[in-house]
Amino acid sequence: MSERWNPQSVQPIWVNNEWVTGEGELPVVDPSTGEVFARVATVGRSVVQSAIGTAFRAWDAWRRLTGRERGRCLLRIADAVDRRADEFARTITRENGKPLAQARAEVAMTVDHLQWFAEEARRAYGRVVPQQVAGKRHLVLRQPVGVVGAIAPWNFPLVLAVRKAAPALAAGCPVVLKPASATPLSAVLLCEAIEAADLPPGVFHLVVGTAAEIGAEFTQNPLCRKITFTGSTAVGRELMRAAGEQIKKLSLELGGHAPAIVFEDADLEIALQQSLIAKFRNTGQSCIAANRLYVQRSIFGTFVDAFVERTKALKVGGGFEPDVEIGPLIDAAAVEHALAQVEDAVAQGAQIACGGRRLDRPGFFFEPTVLTDVPRHAQCMTEESFAPLVPIVPFDTEEEVIAAANDTEYGLAAYLFTQRLDRAWRVAEALEAGTVAVNDGVPAVSCCPFGGFKQSGMGRELGTEGLDAFLETKHVSLGNIG
Ligand code: NAP
Fold first, then answer.
1. Mean pLDDT within 219-232
2. How many CB atoms lie within 10 A of CB 8?
3. Percentage of residues in the chain having pLDDT higher than 90
4. Residue 231 CB less than 6 A away from ligand 1
5. At a CB cut-off of 8 Å and minimum separation 6, what does 322 contact?
6. Is 287 a catalytic residue?
7. Residue 95 Cβ < 6 Å to ligand 1
8. Which of 214, 229, 232 is the best mutation target for the ligand 1 pocket, counting ligand atoms within 8 Å of the beta carbon and taking the most?
C-alpha cells in the first residue's frame, strides 16, 4: 500500500471524465511523521467552472434514470469500495493519522451509507393531495435539485464525502466534490471506485485546489444549484453569506461542542466506556466529540479517578502501530490549539489530571488530557477542542446541568448517561442538539438524520432526510378534470 503514494510523482484527479494532472500540485503530509508522502494535482477556477458545466450537461440523462438504476450504480460503488477496503483504510490512516482500526470502521460505514442511499434512491416519494376545489387534482413531486458542489473536511475524509455524494447521486444530482487539502487521497480512491462502477460520464468530478476559489465558483456559478458543506462554523458562515447572492440551496454541517452528562444513577462502567469513546475516538477530532464532561457531584471523585486512569492507559502512536487508540493530530496548528486551551484553563485555575503536553517525537502528537477545576469561561468550556482534551466539571441538579449543556451557540450532539427512563426522556427532550445519545458513545448511523441545532448547521444528512436535502418540491395542479 505504501508504494501506491509517492512524493516524487503527482497523482492526477478525476475531472471532466478524465484523470488530469492539472495546473499545480498539493503535497500531502503524514501527520504521524510530518513528512510529505504524496502529491496531488490541483486545478484552478476555470477547471472547476468547466466541471460544473460538464456535470450540468450530464444531469438530464442522470435524473431520467429510474431510482432503481441509480441505486444499482451506488451498489456498484459500494462493492468497489468494499473490495478495496484495506487500501482505503490504509490511505485514510496515512493522510489523516487515525488508528487503522478506526479507519477500517470509517470504510465500513462508507459502504453502509452507499447501500442505504442505493435503497433510498427509489423512495423519492411525492404525494397525491385530495382536491379542495371541484374539477382539480393535485400532485406533489420530488425532483433532483441539480448540480451539487460538495465540500468535505479532513477528519473523516471518506465517509463525510460519501455522506454528501451518495444521497446527491441517489436523488439524481451530479456532484463536484472538493476534499479537504489535508486529505485528498481518500477522495482519489473514491473516484477510482466510481470509475469502476461505470457511472454515466460527467456525473462525478473531483476538484482539488484553493478553497476560496473553488468555494467562489460553487457560490457564483448559477449552474451549481446546491452547496453541501461539512467543516467549521466560520467557513459555513462565509459560504452562507456568499450563497445568499443567488439564494443558493445550502446544507451546512458545522462545528460542535457536545456536552456529556453523567448522572449519579448511571451504570458507571457503561458511562466510562462510552464517554471515553465519545471523547477520544478519532483522537478527539470529531464534530460530535464529547467536548465537556459534566458529572453529578455524588459520583464525581469516583468517576474522575476511573476516567483519568483509563485515559492514561490509552495507547498513543502512529495509526499503523498495533493496538493504537490515539493517533496524531492533523497538523502542528492543531497541537498548538490544544496547548493553548490547556494554558488558558490552567491560567484560570484548572488542574491537569493527566496529559497536557505535546509528545516528544516527530509528527503532531498530543497527550490525552483531562482537566479538572475548569472555570465556566475557560476556552475549552466554550470552544471546540478538536483534540484529545477534556474538562470534567461537577454539577448538582438536572436543571442546572441542562442549562449548562445548552449554554453554547453550538447544538450538534449531546450525550447523557442514566438508567432512569424518565430522566433519559426528559433530558433528551430538553437538550438543544441534533443528536442526543443515551448511554451510547457512537450514535451516528446511516438510517437516522444527522445535523445541528443553532450554529452547528442547517439541514440534515443520512436517514430519509439525507435524500430530501437534494430534492426540490413541485406542486402540479391539474385543472378541468371533472
Ligand atoms: P474547515 O477549515 O472549515 O474546512 C472544511 C472544508 O472547507 C475543507 O475542504 C476546506 O478546504 C474548505 N474550505 C475552507 N475555506 C473555504 C472557503 N472559503 N470556501 C469554501 N471552502 C472552504 O474545517 P476543517 O478544519 O477541515 O474541519 C473541522 C471542522 O469541521 C470542525 O469545526 C468540525 O466540527 C467540523 N465538522 C462538522 C461535521 C458535522 O457533520 N457537523 C463533521 C465533521 C467536521 P481546505 O482544506 O482546502 O482549506
1. 98
2. 6
3. 99
4. yes
5. none
6. yes
7. no
8. 232
Ligand 1 pocket check for 184: Cβ under 6 Å: no
Separation CA 17–CA 199 (nearest Å): 10
Q: Is 254 in the pocket of ligand 1 (CB under 6 A)?
A: yes
407 and 325 in a common domain: yes
In the block, residue with C-alpha cell 404525494: 127
The amino acid present at 297, given as its one-letter code, is R
Q: How many structural domains does the chain have?
A: 2
Predicted pLDDT of residue 325? 98
Is the same domain home to 188 and 321?
Answer: no
Q: Which domain holds residue 82?
A: 10-254+456-476
Helix axes 67-83, 100-120, angle to 10 degrees: 160
Verify whether ligand 1 is closer than 6 Å to residue 1 (CB atom). no
Inform me whether the pLDDT recorded for 1 exceeds 90. Answer: no
Closest-CA residue, ligand 1 atom 10, reads 180
Q: Per-residue pLDDT tens for 183-218?
A: 999 999 999 999 999 999 999 999 999 999 999 999
User: What ligand 1 atom has the least distance to the C-alpha of 163?
Assistant: 40
Distance between CA 65 and CA 78 in Å, rounded?
19
Which atom belonging to ligand 1 lies closest to the Cα atom of 287?
A: 34
Residue 64, domain member (yes or no): yes
Question: Is there a single domain that holds both residue 312 and residue 163?
Answer: no
We report the CATH number of the domain holding residue 383 as 3.40.309.10
pLDDT tens digits along 445-477 = 999 999 999 999 999 999 999 999 999 999 999
Please check whether residue 301 lies inside any domain of the structure. Answer: yes
d(CA 140, CA 137): 10
Residue 2 lies in a domain: no
Report how far ligand 1's centroid is from the alpha carbon of 181 (Å): 10
Mean pLDDT of 378-397: 98
Instruction: Based on the fold, state whether residues 66 and 191 are members of the same structural domain.
Output: yes
Whether 142 maps to a domain, the answer reads yes
Q: What does the pLDDT read at residue 276?
A: 98
191 catalytic? Reply is no
Together in a domain, 323 and 204? no
pTM for the predicted model, two decimal places: 0.97
DSSP state at residue 148: E
Q: Are 285 and 410 in the same domain?
A: yes
